[in-house]
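Q: How do we represent a protein-ligand complex in a form that can be generated token by token?
A: Start from the inputs.
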Amino acid sequence: MGFSTDMVRTIAIAGHGQTGKTTLIERLLLAAGVIQRAEAVETGKTVSDFTPEEIERKISIYSSLAHLPWRNKLFNFWDTPGSSDFIGEVICAFRASELAIMLLDARAGVQIETIKLWRNLDRRNKARLLFINHMDDERADFEAAVQDVHVQFKVEVCAVTIPMGSGKNYKGIIDVLHHKAYIPDGNTEKEIPVPPEFEEEYTRTREILAGAAAEGDEDLLVKFIDEAGLSDEDIVRGLQLAIKDNRIVPAFAGSGIDGTGITSLLNFIDEIVPSPEGCLEVSVKPDGTEETVKIDPSQPLSCFVVKTSNDQFSGKLSYIKVITGTLSADSEVFNISEDRKEKIGKLYRTVGKKLIETKELCAGDIGLAVKLASAKTNNTLAANQSTLPFIKLRTPAPVYSMAVSAKDKKDDDKISELLLRACEEDQTLSFVYNAETKQNVLSGMGDLHISIILNRIKLQTKIEVQTSIPRIAYRETIQRKAQSEYTHKKQSGGHGQYARVVLSIAPLERGEAYSFTNAVFGGAISKGYIPGVEKGVKEAMENGVLAGYPVVDVGATVLDGKEHPVDSSEMAFKIAARNAFKDAMRNAGPILLEPIMSLTVFVDTNYLGDIMSDLSGRRGHILGQSNLGNGIEEIRAQVPHQELLKYAIDLRSMTSGTGSFEMVFDHYSPISGKIADDVIAAAKEFIKQQNEDD
Ligand SMILES: Nc1nc2c(ncn2[C@@H]2O[C@H](COP(=O)(O)OP(=O)(O)O)[C@@H](O)[C@H]2O)c(=O)[nH]1
Ligand SMILES: [Mg+2]
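Then emit the structure tokens for the protein with guanosine-5'-diphosphate bound:
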């Protein structure tokens, strides 16, 4: 059966680990009759956690997609991982969804990953609902969790369902929008009238909900004030507008264990959450400027590949979000990003690993195609060749790297091939050969992320992979001006070589990298030889005089020189300039620079002291620290990269697994004394070894 844009809703379920996302998907599918029983995550039989890695570790690692029919609509739900190691998977799901459901554990309220995910959704301006789960657990507190979100994110949260009791006394929920209650009933939940003892709370909550719904719409506000309340229809209309403008966050209560709170959530999505039509995507013009595109079924086809995975039976799976028009099975489209035609064969919807064939996907919908010849994640597919490509997924910088090689050198190529393929599937993974340090470096979002990738390769190929902490890319620079002159001369028999260069070098501002000026007066060096001089300077800067690291932030000026009518050449000037530079650098106070990372750490308040003193032990410079409420601290610091190579592991052990961090390169900063001496000694040892190997 075909679905039109107004019938489709795509929703990402996100939240801190263990809040119950995977369990909630089971409950949603059960309520819609897609599955006959909800499985516990521990059994390894849930719809969403179906890969061997997920079954073994009992956590979600990949985002998985499941669709379900509800009334006359089709809902696509993404289950996403909660661990920040797999944020790349969450980002795919966010990109392909118009709405997110943020899951909270009613015992814990806002947690560290909640904050990071919420900020991520803010950057995308995505509307969201709040599902406050675990109401059946001791210490569950619905109101505290709602208040937490309100205080933490400065948003208006309004309860659409409220719990009847909590912990051992949890009986179910009240659907405020429909004046009904739901209680557990065998496998699912059943509707009952609101029990008299909850009538008062219902009335109070409905009043607040009406007030929230009225806000932002003048007509409704007037009605609300004049008529002292709103009709059910008016509340629905107000909420529709509020969600569309992302003004309020509706909150729901429930439990994944007894399946309460599910029906009201599904009905709300049906009745209130707007159609994807008109939601915004971004495309990029050839000059790099961005342009918004509306989800629109009436335009020619355009779609975006949000995710690629490999299925052992079906082969390559491309998850395609349709932005405009309709994507049909057995059609031909243009892959804008790869500049070639692409044949679409069969199209599918999924329920976890199960593929269900469909003839078409309309604008706003998401599904998958198998074995596409060229399509990769981030590709734009369209009917017209002139369609602009959509903007690529925005993924965070990697925080953890490992140098990787095969135990047996002959397997290195195979490993590289597999890792490069893994990078195509996973945008937060990178695998690059660092020519400077002569290492193959695999980088990702944490040690768990990297170890899962390497394990998979080991399972597939039986090849032994060895890892080591990667070498840091240091730089060299100078502290003061210096001048030198160098004559390159070989004039004994045959064609001679002659060039003389007078060169001055001076420090530039940090980050300015390099400049070259020709200040030769009166033709002492012919114009034609100046490029040779510059090449020599650049070559010299590839390996500094201290430890062979690239030289940065130096301005070179060629002042004077001398040439020979027959024996001079560009090559001769290059050699002279290279040597002149090295000589000058030795006299210019050469120093080492190390990369400094900008680090943001999120930890529970009780670890704050430990983390702060640990950071100063890592030569960190604390820039600021703020209490985010609910016992969570954010620390911003600048720390040498050298000291953060194992931070993913160390932070976890210091915080019993609760801490989390982000980091990006910030700048280079000088080092001296013993730290510099050690780096220089290690570099010399490394160069010696390389020479022996060659
Ligand atoms: N008591 C209780 N346990 C729950 C609830 N929802 C999920 N769980 C359990 O919490 C654990 C983590 O659930 P899971 O769905 O894997 O969480 P996820 O990491 O967010 O996907 C599992 O043992 C679930 O059975 C709930 O509402 N109440
Ligand atoms: Mg999960």
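The chain has a mean pLDDT of 94. The two ends are 65 Å apart (CA to CA).
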